[in-house]
Amino acid sequence: MNVNGVVIDDTFAEAFGMRATRIVVTAASHAWAYHAANAMVGFATSVIACGCEAGIERELAPDATPDGRPGLAVLIFAVSKDELAKQVVNRVGQCVLTAPTSAAFSGLDAEERVDLGRKLRYFGDGFQVSKLIGGRRYWRIPVMDGEFLCEETTGMTRAVGGGNFLVLADGQAQALRACEAAISAMRSVPGVVMPFPGGIVRSGSKIGSKYKALPASTNDGFCPTLVGVTRSALTTRTAAVLEIVIDGLTDADVRAAMRAGIGAACAIGAAGGVQRITAGNYGGKLGKFQFPLHDILG
Amino acid sequence: MSATASQTGAGPAQRVQESMAADGVLTMTLKSPAPAPVDMSPLTPDALAGMRRAKIESLSLCAGTKTVRVGELFDVEGDGTANIVIRRSSPRLVRVGAGMTRGRITVEGEVGMYAGAEMRGGTLVVSGDAGALAGCAMHDGLLHIRGSVGDFAAAALPGARRGMDGGTMIVEGDAGDRLGDRMRRGLLLIGGDAGDYCGARMLAGTIVVHGHVGAGVGAGMQRGTLLLATMPPLLGTFSDCGTHALPFLPVLRKHLIDAGPPSARFTIAERVRRFVGDRAYAGLGEVLVSQ
What we know:
The structure holds two protein chains of two kinds.
Chain A: E1 2-3, E2 6-8, E3 12-26, H1 30-40, E4 53-60, E5 71-78, H2 81-96, E6 103-106, E7 113-115, H3 117-120, E8 129-133, E9 136-143, E10 146-151, E11 153-155, E12 157-169, H4 172-186, E13 192-193, E14 205-207, E15 216-218, E16 240-248, H5 251-268, E17 274-278, E18 289-292, H6 293-297
Parallel strand pairs in A: 2-17, 6-10
Antiparallel strand pairs in A: 1-2, 3-5, 3-6, 3-12, 3-18, 4-5, 7-11, 8-9, 9-10, 12-16, 12-17, 13-16, 14-15
Chain B: H1 12-22, E1 25-30, E2 38-39, H2 45-48, H3 53-58, E3 60-63, E4 66-69, H4 70-73, E5 74-77, E6 83-89, E7 93-94, E8 104-109, E9 120-126, E10 140-145, E11 165-171, E12 185-190, E13 206-209, E14 225-228, E15 239-244, H5 248-259, E16 272-277, E17 285-290
């Protein structure tokens, strides 16, 4: 397949089942909601070492939040319910509770729940107050700027982590420009986050390493400086490869995001230095979900 | 899924409408003034489920020291049981809707004591006044009194240690003394005034009073919130904690607006003066006064 001079490989992205939640962070202004949410999704690029993958899904207008203040929707993905619960409590406790004027609410309606304010309430040292409003329990925790309001639990759902595609280009600048365009398009897709810095990964990894202690190492097959010394997937024409990883609440969300992102990268086309789009997989043996590039663009 | 959509679900009102759509209306019109207080608790949507009109008319009700047939007291029309309408009601009809778990009862007129007592679900609407102990020991559901209620509304059953522990009670008029006495959970909205000892011995829950309250407000309260429109004559055992914009107030306000009328008519202030007590009992309840 060829789109605007860009070769689309006949391959698929392989993704894994994860557990996810959406948390709505509000504050007195969008700026302070962003400070809280941005801290909360920090160091959450990969479950390999961060415990979870997280990102800001979108901004919420005051009329779309439980307390009528500006907010942000944050998605957090983890490999298990226990790990998700641990990450949620730690991140909300250290990054949202601490941020001036902030509040945290469940943004996902689901039967399965993980604790949000249920454990954090003990920070109130006995002065915390429970309020049951409309069937939802909230905790009012006294803090130095007033009260931190936090919903007791947040909904949890089965989700998809690890959707991806790679952009091969003439050079670093061309690859970056194409990926920036892709990320810009993908940010309008609901239910997904691209957890790496700016949504883009330059250090794609493969499973395993020559060093026994490492579970993953550089994806040498896609490193342009190793074309001549390893079993490379590139030619000497390709000078840079960047990857976009997508976590979504459903496989349809991931599919929609991949379609939007690849479409935006292809719109720049061969004239803009984009050569080829491919995807990372493990031969279909490890992941529960497969996203064939030709199907997605078809 | 949007963040706001996640905040909603099939609420009690929607469930009632669905139930009504699947069933008709049972109308019971009081033929003449009841000879004695009549225990109406057997006439709930749950208790009547599956019964035909003839069977309902043959049911016995306690009227004072005697028993009377439903058919002797009421003209019964319709075959539905999920939606019951009681017409020409009087204060001699007691325990209306007591213990109901689902469906809807609409009362045209006044009711006596224990209206909606121990309710566990459904909706009870009374167009007139209700007597003492309305909504006492209520667990869930919606009790809406368009008139006023007597003493001990949403309180505990006599001798019990806990009052209302869930659901929503809305009174458009006034409430008597001891409103929400020993209340444990739930939301209580009073459009008018409340008498003495409002929220006394409260354990938890939320009471909103739009009018004035009498003496002894919150006496002995342990936890819970009294949200008042005007400054009450507070006991000396409540500590002034200053004026604040508490973040749960907008959430409560939004909930009331989303619930529609009559809840939406209850305004919640942006800022409140917070008094904590009853410190005589090491209580951490709060009296919030709109500013």
